[in-house]
Amino acid sequence: MASMIVTGGAGFIGANFVRHWRRAAPADEVIVLDALTYAGNRASLDGVDGVDLVVGDICDTGLVRRLIAARGVDTIVHFAAESHVDRSITGPDAFVTTNVVGTHSLLKAAKAEWLDTGTGRPHRFHHVSTDEVYGSLGPDDAAFREDTRYQPNSPYSASKAGSDHLVRAYHHTYGLETTTSNCSNNYGPYQFPEKLIPLFALNALSGRPLPIYGDGMNVRDWLHVGDHCAGIEMILRGGRVGETYNVGGGQELPNLAVIEEICRTVDAAFAADPSLATRFPEAPAARSRPTAELKTFVEDRKGHDRRYAIDEAKIRGELGYAPARDFATGFAETLGWYLANEAWWRPLLGRAAGAR
Ligand code: NAD
């Protein structure tokens, strides 16, 4: 690879991937294409050298074609999306526009420049998707495999499923060299504080309630974003064209267990570092109270999927993938990052208000 467009590279996973790729392949040119929606943030790329941020929309096929042609792009890693399930329930249109129409716009641009011009140039279109396309599992159902039937239940997962099908079709019909990864719930640095892990960590620091949907027993597989980026690198380097790979963290946990781990880790951090009580005086932990007292059960999300679980045998067997962190280790690292980077998240709290 020599020149790569990372769509959505100013978002959570995209920004982590850009940082990962700069370390993994420092000679490559990296162009971030990002519309800087509420979820995109220039500051997530601060301090990364050699990255060109182009503020633009993936729906702008002409712009993408010009970038591919002018910059000799041979790889697109596609993260840009509307990504928050709750927002898709109250406003699904943006999800169809960005996730379905936007992905199709990128595929058209890639086909036009890589195939129709007849250069025969080796290329790769890697599409980042979600395990939510497979629907919801019962407690004893087998984990999602790559050939599990698609049964998306939310407007978000339905729009991602649509994009997955388009990527598949562009490979089968036109021969575009694609790969797709379907990953589980990510957490780690630079995650916008509307998603569960940063929302709960930052609410714990400011003494706000920790709102738990339903009975708190919805199960997710938790994947540290660093492990996810390592998995995408393996697929880019060794994945078979036309294939999809599930990427998981090997950490299937009910939300209540996740929340308890968050509370325990915050309590331990305050016990170990007395300066946190001065910085975050509203936190129960600042008064030696348990963070767990902030737990509040709220009405369940509409259509809330009960359980997701990832069978990662394919990526493990073919590419040697193995997540390096369990949830306790990964969350402790993540909390440390948020404590050290208040200047990154503090300005975002207004934008995230009311979301979760
Ligand atoms: P995010 O919401 O943090 O970031 C999305 C980025 O895309 C933002 O920078 C935003 O500005 C940009 N964007 C949105 N619409 C755009 C458009 N029309 N044109 C250009 N840029 C646009 O999302 P994330 O959590 O980093 O997720 C990245 C990808 O991974 C998404 O495709 C998502 O579906 C998938 N995914 C995420 C998770 C997770 O746990 N976060 C899990 C599974 C799959």
Report on the architecture of this protein.
It is a single chain. This protein has 13 helices and 12 strands. With 356 residues, the chain is an alpha/beta fold. It has a domain at 3-184 and 225-249 and 308-324: NAD(P)-binding Rossmann-like Domain (Rossmann fold, 3-Layer(aba) Sandwich). β5, α5 and β6 (178-183) form a beta-alpha-beta unit. α6 packs across α8. The longest helix is centred in the N-terminal third of the chain and has 24 residues, at 93-116. The radius of gyration is 20 Å and the shape is globular. The protein binds nicotinamide-adenine-dinucleotide. Residues 7-8, 10-14, 33-37, 39-40, 57-59, 79-81, 83, 98, 102, 128, 130, 160, 183, 185-186, 192 line the site of nicotinamide-adenine-dinucleotide (NAD).
Topology:
Elements: E1 3-7, H1 12-24, E2 29-34, E3 51-55, H2 61-71, E4 75-78, H3 85-90, H4 93-116, E5 124-130, H5 155-174, E6 178-183, E7 185-187, H6 196-206, E8 210-213, E9 219-224, H7 225-238, E10 244-247, E11 252-254, H8 255-272, H9 275-279, E12 295-298, H10 313-319, H11 327-340, H12 342-345, H13 349-352
Parallel strand pairs: 1-2, 1-4, 2-3, 4-5, 5-6, 6-10, 7-9, 8-12
Antiparallel strand pairs: 9-11
Residues 7-8, 10-14, 33-37, 39-40, 57-59, 79-81, 83, 98, 102, 128, 130, 160, 183, 185-186, 192 line the site of nicotinamide-adenine-dinucleotide.
Overview features:
Rossmann fold, 12 strands, 13 helices, binds nicotinamide-adenine-dinucleotide
CATH homologous superfamily designation of the domain at 3-184 and 225-249 and 308-324 = NAD(P)-binding Rossmann-like Domain
Helix content: 40-55%
Largest sheet: 7 strands, parallel
Q: What's the end-to-end separation, in Å? A: 38 Å
CATH architecture of the domain at 3-184 and 225-249 and 308-324: 3-Layer(aba) Sandwich
Elements, N to C (H/E): EHEEHEHHEHEEHEEHEEHHEHHHH
> What is Rg?
20 Å
| Strand order in the largest sheet | 3-2-1-4-5-6-10
Uncertain residue ranges: none
| Helical/strand content category | alpha/beta
CATH top-level class of the domain at 3-184 and 225-249 and 308-324:
Alpha Beta
Task: Give the overall shape, derived from the CA principal axes.
Answer: globular
Strand content: 15-25%
Distinct ligands, ions and cofactors found in the model: nicotinamide-adenine-dinucleotide
What is the CATH topology assignment of the domain at 3-184 and 225-249 and 308-324?
Answer: Rossmann fold
Number of strands: 12
Enumerate how many helices there are, as a single number: 13
Mean pLDDT: 96
